[in-house]
Amino acid sequence: MTTMTGNVVALVFIIFVVYWFWLSKPKGHKARAREVIDVEMANGVFSPAVIEVVANTPVVLRLIRKDASPCAEQVVFKELGISQSLSLNQPQQLEIVLKTPGEYHFSCQMGMYQGRILAS
């Protein structure tokens, strides 16, 4: 019976991992001009993880770090050359203007938290 229980637990864990990394869809948000968008870093994800904006329109991200892990200490927009340090539970605003349409990725400093901004 113990082997059977172990197999069931292992199978449930495998299903969870497959769902978490490959099947779950990140929350998204379609931004209006000059809208302040709350982006929360918690439990290994950005929320929302996908933000749609209109190119050449200012967007303000209010970044809220809820995760105390060192990985969440910074948010990095590699394509934009932006890196912002984040204090725990202290919202920080970051205004960006994406001049050209495209997909812009952002992540924590270690690349574990992942998000993207879609500019059209």
List the helices and strands and how they pair.
Layout: H1 2-23, E1 28-30, E2 36-42, E3 45-47, E4 50-53, E5 59-65, E6 74-77, E7 82-85, E8 92-96, E9 102-108, E10 114-119
Q: Characterize the main sheet.
A: 6 strands, mixed
* CATH fold descriptor: Immunoglobulin-like
Assign a percent range to the helix content: 10-25%
Count the DSSP helices.
Answer: 1
Q: Which outline best applies?
A: elongated
Radius of gyration: 17 Å
Low-pLDDT stretches = none
Order of helices and strands: HEEEEEEEEEE
Percent of sequence in beta strands? 35-45%
Identify the CATH homologous superfamily: Cupredoxins -  blue copper proteins
- The strand order across the widest sheet is 1-4-10-9-6-7
CATH class: Mainly Beta
CATH architectural label: Sandwich
Terminal Cα span: 57 Å
Number of domains: 1
Describe it for me?
This protein has one helix spanning about 1-25, and strands spanning about 30, 35-40, 45, 50-55, 60-65, 75, 80-85, 90-95, 100-110, 115-120. The protein has about 120 residues and is of the alpha/beta class. The relative contact order is 0.20.
Which short descriptors sum up this protein?
about 120 residues; alpha/beta; about 20% helix; Immunoglobulin-like; 1 helix; 4-stranded mixed beta sheet
Summarize the structure.
Helices cover 18% and strands 42% of the residues.
